[in-house]
C-alpha cells in the first residue's frame, strides 16, 4: 500500500469518527457549529465524508470535544521504540550500538570486564563524551589519570592521547558518544550550594 493510499484510508475514516465522538457526547450539529464557528452544512459534509478534513476544520472540533487531534484522525499507534542491535565484542569489551546511521555522531553502551590491562593512550580525530552507568571507569587523558563513578560524565577532544577502561576492581558499564571534530556535547554542571 502506498503512502497516498494510507493517507486516503485515514482521511476516509475521519468522518465516521467525528460523528461517533459527537454522538457519544450527545452534541447536536447546531451546538457544535456554535462552539466551533464551522457551519452546520460543513460539519455534516465532514461527517458524511463529502468534505475532505483539513487542519483548519479539525483543530476547532478537537478543542470543542476536548480530545487530542490524534483521536479525531485515528493516528496509528506508535511502533515499538526499542533499539534492537547485536552487541559487538572487540578486545574483550562489549559494545551495543545505539545509533543506526553511519557517520556523524555515534552512540554506544559499553561493558568493560574487570581487567588490569596497562593503559595505552591513543589519539585520533573526533570528540568523545562518556557517562558512567555502573562500576568505576579509569580515564587517562593526556597527563590526567582519573577514576569516574556512576553518574559522572566526561568530554574531551580525542586528538589528546587517551585511554579508558576498568580500574581492575570490577566491570564498568558506560555510555559513549563519539563524533567528528566540532560536534561537541555539552554537560551543564549544577553549581555547588554556597
- Low-pLDDT runs of 5+ residues are 182-189
Series of secondary-structure elements, N-terminal to C-terminal: HHHHHHEEEEEEEEE
Helix content: 25-40%
Class computed from helices, strands and strand pairing: alpha+beta
How would you characterize this protein structure?
With 194 residues, the chain is α+β, with helices and mostly antiparallel strands. The chain is 28% helix and 27% strand. The chain is built from six helices and nine strands, in the order ααααααβββββββββ. It has helices spanning 3-12, 14-24, 29-36, 40-48, 55-65, 69-73; strands spanning 88-90, 93-97, 106-112, 127-134, 136-141, 144-149, 153-157, 162-166, 172-179. Helix 2 crosses helix 4. It is rod-shaped.
Please describe the topology of this protein.
Elements: H1 3-12, H2 14-24, H3 29-36, H4 40-48, H5 55-65, H6 69-73, E1 88-90, E2 93-97, E3 106-112, E4 127-134, E5 136-141, E6 144-149, E7 153-157, E8 162-166, E9 172-179
Antiparallel strand pairs: 1-2, 2-3, 3-9, 4-7, 4-9, 5-6, 5-8
